[in-house]
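Team,

Forwarding the record for the chain on the shared tracking sheet. I've put the sequence and predicted structure together so nobody has to dig through attachments.
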Amino acid sequence: MAVVELNKENFKETIVNNPFVIVDFWAPWCQPCVDFTPVIEAAAEKNPDILFGMVDTEANPEIAEYFEVTKIPGILIIREQAGIHAQQGEIGAPALDKLIEWARDFDMTEVREHYAEQDKK
């Protein structure tokens, strides 16, 4: 699956309509971000069940601000509309693979229970 460009028009819809999303926060002037793009693209190819998206923090600063991204590149892992991990700074392909493996195995029970409690209120 191709990596999706995320912006303020499609971000929320993307998160709501996809159970597993990995977001890469980047900027065109950031060389480590540009160098990381092929890593994200390769991960998207290896994991077609996950939606991978990229947020250009220059073009969409409000998304970066909302998620308190202060350093790029940055990764946000979202499952079932809940952010379960945020990683700021450079990582390589092996580390990203480990994060994906961890996120797949993450027990969402507590998150689901929290949402259920919120729905009762």
